[in-house]
């Protein structure tokens, strides 16, 4: 058993019940055999929940998990019921394939396990964060089309990228793919603005298809009449952009003030998108 006090750490639920320990063995710990969703919860309600469920469902089908949707939904509802008194909460819902005998091959009778952790956030998430200072990462994302877009439990590349940012005292690092094209920051998707249009890297070989990336493409940018598209984004396009920003579920949108020696002084498009983002979320 792996134990942790909930008095000094986040609240934890396993399969819908409050817990202080993870039963072992677990294939999520042993092999990264699972998926997760990081959700922003406002007064007990997860934002963009449909987007999270849809991405999780695709991931479960890709990994060949048994039908776990109803169980995961019930576990989330039980956890969120106790979070309603907090204005903002960071919640992570993890689904592993559960326990099994040793060996890589998944068991035919797998019983997936749902682990939820939640921690209150002090800052009002509707406030636009200060522009970030980032740089190019030395690490490059590996290519694996079968897993591209999924938020699976194998996050060592993200750990290494975040460590680069930490060592350099940066807010983030911008990671390229194996072809040398910009892909994403360690914990979010990037957008560049050029001549009134938004561009974000396609995620056919690597990267996570973020819920906020999708929200910007499908709802936020169209609401402002701003063309937005996916495709190959080059380093030169990034450096010549009018604005650069990244997004994730907890941070929302964050403009970039500096990428290495390249600097941006004003962020009118990101600020307009930020306002529309929260207007569209209706909170």
Automatic annotation (TrEMBL):
<dbReference type="GO" id="GO:0046656">
    <property type="term" value="P:folic acid biosynthetic process"/>
</dbReference>
<dbReference type="InterPro" id="IPR043132">
    <property type="entry name" value="BCAT-like_C"/>
</dbReference>
<keyword id="KW-0289">Folate biosynthesis</keyword>
<dbReference type="InterPro" id="IPR043131">
    <property type="entry name" value="BCAT-like_N"/>
</dbReference>
<dbReference type="InterPro" id="IPR017824">
    <property type="entry name" value="Aminodeoxychorismate_lyase_IV"/>
</dbReference>
<comment type="subunit">
    <text>Homodimer.</text>
</comment>
<dbReference type="GO" id="GO:0008696">
    <property type="term" value="F:4-amino-4-deoxychorismate lyase activity"/>
</dbReference>
<dbReference type="InterPro" id="IPR036038">
    <property type="entry name" value="Aminotransferase-like"/>
</dbReference>
<dbReference type="InterPro" id="IPR050571">
    <property type="entry name" value="Class-IV_PLP-Dep_Aminotrnsfr"/>
</dbReference>
<keyword id="KW-0456">Lyase</keyword>
<dbReference type="GO" id="GO:0005829">
    <property type="term" value="C:cytosol"/>
</dbReference>
<dbReference type="Pfam" id="PF01063">
    <property type="entry name" value="Aminotran_4"/>
</dbReference>
<comment type="similarity">
    <text>Belongs to the class-IV pyridoxal-phosphate-dependent aminotransferase family.</text>
</comment>
<protein>
    <recommendedName>
        <fullName>Aminodeoxychorismate lyase</fullName>
        <ecNumber>4.1.3.38</ecNumber>
    </recommendedName>
</protein>
<dbReference type="GO" id="GO:0008153">
    <property type="term" value="P:4-aminobenzoate biosynthetic process"/>
</dbReference>
<dbReference type="GO" id="GO:0030170">
    <property type="term" value="F:pyridoxal phosphate binding"/>
</dbReference>
<comment type="pathway">
    <text>Cofactor biosynthesis; tetrahydrofolate biosynthesis; 4-aminobenzoate from chorismate: step 2/2.</text>
</comment>
<keyword id="KW-0663">Pyridoxal phosphate</keyword>
<dbReference type="InterPro" id="IPR001544">
    <property type="entry name" value="Aminotrans_IV"/>
</dbReference>
């Amino acid at each position: 058993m792996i134990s942790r006090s909930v008095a000094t750490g986040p609240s934890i639920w396993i399969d819908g019940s409050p817990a202080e320990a993870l039963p072992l063995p677990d294939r999520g710990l042993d092999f990264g055999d699972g998926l997760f969703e990081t959700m922003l919860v406002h007064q007990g309600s997860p934002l963009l929940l449909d987007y999270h469920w849809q991405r999780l469902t695709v991931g479960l089908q890709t990994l060949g998990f048994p039908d776990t949707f109803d169980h995961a939904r019930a576990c989330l509802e039980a956890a969120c019921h106790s979070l309603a008194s907090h204005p903002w909460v960071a919640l992570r819902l993890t689904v592993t394939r559960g326990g099994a005998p040793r060996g890589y091959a998944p068991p035919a009778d797998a019983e997936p396990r749902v682990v939820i952790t939640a921690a209150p956030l002090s800052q009002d998430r509707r406030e636009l964060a200060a522009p970030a200072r980032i740089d190019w990462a030395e690490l490059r994302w590996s290519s694996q089309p079968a897993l591209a877009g999924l938020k699976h439990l194998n996050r060592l590349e993200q750990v290494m990228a975040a460590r680069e940012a930490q060592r350099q005292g940066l807010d983030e690092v911008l990671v390229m793919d194996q072809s040398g094209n910009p892909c994403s920051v360690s914990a979010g998707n990037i957008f560049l603005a050029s001549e009134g249009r938004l561009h974000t890297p396609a995620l056919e070989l690597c990267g996570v298809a973020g819920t906020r990336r999708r929200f910007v493409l499908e709802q936020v940018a169209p609401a402002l009449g701003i063309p937005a598209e996916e495709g190959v984004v080059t380093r030169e396009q990034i450096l010549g952009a009018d604005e650069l920003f990244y997004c994730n579920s907890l941070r929302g949108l964050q403009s970039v003030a500096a990428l290495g020696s390249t600097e941006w002084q004003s962020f009118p498009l990101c600020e307009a998108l930020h306002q529309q983002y929260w207007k569209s979320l209706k909170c």
